[in-house]
Amino acid sequence: MENVVIRKLRLEDADAVRRIQFEITKKGEDTDYRESLKAVVSGNQHVGVAAERDGVVVGYMISYMLFGGFGLSKSAWITNFGVDPAYMGRGIGKSLAKRILDEYEGRGVTHVYTAVRWDSVDLLSFFRTIGFDRSTLINLCKIGDKR
User: Fold this and answer.
1) Could you report the per-residue pLDDT of 25-51, keeping only the tens digit for each?
2) CA-CA distance, 58 to 89, in Å (whole number)?
3) Confidence bin at 98 (pLDDT 50/70/90)
4) Residue 36 is part of which domain span?
5) Which of 14, 24, 109, 125 could bond 33 through an S-S bridge, CB–CB 3.0 to 4.6 Å?
6) Where are the alpha helices (DSSP H) in the chain?
7) Which DSSP category does 72 fall into?
8) 3-state class of 56 per DSSP?
9) Does residue 143 form part of some domain?
């Protein structure tokens, strides 16, 4: 992981986040990540980090804190994460996660969660390698009415 710096995510990183997401999923090219990143960079409840190599963002991770609710004490959720496919397998994802997990440890957060599709084998494997496992939570989803 030569010449890669992990730093706070900035609003001007929105185009890089969009590019990385598109490279991974081939979808969401028209998503307004600038609007999404406003809350991340302006508040204290969100933690967003970027991996930058030679001035180019090659990865990012976004998370937020929750204060109680449904039996949880102060906790955090990793909600979005991506590494440019050209840089996968170089430890960038682990470095991003370490920065975020260290930040939450410093804030006294002992439980960090994420939600991953059951068939996303690569993501499941990644999160397991950094210490995540099944939790006692069950994810629920309500799909809007199709009237």
Assistant:
1) 887 666 778 888 888 888 788 999 999
2) 12
3) very high
4) 4-129
5) 14
6) 14-25, 33-42, 92-106, 121-129
7) -
8) strand
9) no
- Write down the residue that tokens 């599709």 correspond to: 117
18 falls within a domain: yes
pLDDT tens readout for residues 51-81: 999 999 999 999 999 887 677 778 899 999 9
Q: Is 67 helix (H, G, I), strand (E, B) or coil?
A: strand
Nearest to 106 by CA among 130, 76, 78: 76
What tokens appear for 88 in the block? 């996968």
Torsion angle (degrees, nearest 10) of CA 106, 111, 117, 119: 100
Cross-strand partners of 83: 59
Is residue 86 predicted with pLDDT exceeding 80? Answer: yes
Determine the pLDDT at residue 25: 86
Structural domains counted in the chain: 1
Q: Give the distance from CA 98 to its chain's centroid.
A: 12
| Cα gap 62→32, rounded to integer Å | 15
Residue reference for tokens 């090659």: 58
Structural element, H or E, at residue 86: none
